[in-house]
Amino acid sequence: MLESEIQLSVAGTKDAVTMVEAGAKEVSEELCWKRLCLGMKNQGNLCRAGQILEQFDVQKYEFEKKEVDSEIKEFIDSFEK
């Protein structure tokens, strides 16, 4: 991550912020507020983009589970002891 005066992460819905994480050097309240507002705006944009994607018929890809060779499993498990 680039060095900056403030690092802020926002999570939520298109209508509301549900979580904010931040770390900062000493910065003004004005700068914190501007960055929070920017995060809220972009969170809403991301949610709206997700709604656009819902219009497409995207099918979940099913993966085939393969069994691990017993010798390999035993070798890996030996490190737990």
User: What is the total tally of β strands?
Assistant: 2
Helix/strand-derived category reads alpha+beta
| Rg value | 22 Å
Uncertain stretches of 5 or more adjacent residues = none
Task: Characterize the largest beta sheet: strand count, sense, and whether it forms a barrel.
Answer: 2 strands, antiparallel
The proportion of residues forming helix, as a percent range, comes to 40-55%
Could you give the distance between the termini? 37 Å
Q: What fraction strand?
A: 15-25%
Instruction: List the total number of helices.
Output: 2
- Overall mean confidence score, pLDDT: 86
Strand order of the largest sheet: 1-2
* Secondary-structure element pattern, one letter each: EEHH
Shape: flat
What's a quick, concise take on this entry?
The protein has 81 residues and is α+β, with helices and mostly antiparallel strands. Helix content is 41%, strand content 19%.
Report on this model:
This protein is of the alpha+beta class and 81 residues long. The chain is built from two helices and two strands; from the N terminus they run ββαα. The chain has helices at 29-53, 70-77; strands spanning 6-12, 17-24. The chain has a two-stranded antiparallel ribbon with strand order 1-2. Strand 1 and strand 2 form a beta hairpin. The protein is flat and about 60 Å long. The protein starts with 5 loop residues before the first strand and ends with a helix. The mean pLDDT is 86.
